[in-house]
Amino acid sequence: MPLYQLHKDHVGFPPITEVLKDPAGLLAVGGDLSVERLLNAYSSGIFPWYSDGEPILWWAPMPRMVLAPSQIHVSRSMAKLIRQETYQITFDHAFERVIQQCADTPRAGQPDEDATWILPEMQDAYTQLYHAGYAHSIEIWDQSTLVGGLYGIAIGKMFFGESMFSHRSNVSKLAFIALARLLEQWQFELIDCQLPTEHLSSLGAKPIEIAEFQQFLCNNNEQGLGSNWDSI
Length: 232
Prior knowledge:
The protein is an alpha+beta fold. Helices cover about 30% and strands about 25% of the residues.
């Protein structure tokens, strides 16, 4: 199966059923990071992920790691941390700082400790999505110090998680729990966690197959592109 080459004058994508088996989940290459293309990508279950010096690579890994907000798992230790109210939680108060911190914090197991996939052009693109009302952040504070957080994209009744960071023990979990509880209040259907990790599994996320994920996307797209992210 060929790798699809995208062009800047057309923001469409091939169906996610046509991803490559090697490398697993890779769907297309090229295009740009415009707001229109990114919204089209996420609403189709696709996201960009590439390193410096590479063309833009578009992925739709399957099975997909997801979480229904109502099924968030809160361990005893996390429940205790929440009760202690050691940290302050805010929403959309420091988006650009959160994405910069995520870029400065390499993913676990990443061979090059200085490398990041959240390149400057990616930061610019998601900041544009933030100002357009689709990208959002959760911030965890210790007084005036930003110690953890996450960001992602809200479309319809789905939240597409992108990255998180933590400078204190368990604060990224705290951010994810806060996100899930907020989305449950707003009756969101699903959080797309993209790739499986032990961290996400411990919070209740589970893998689903492509057909089930496509059904969630189809139902979500019937609601249109409105972010449904209430004003804070």
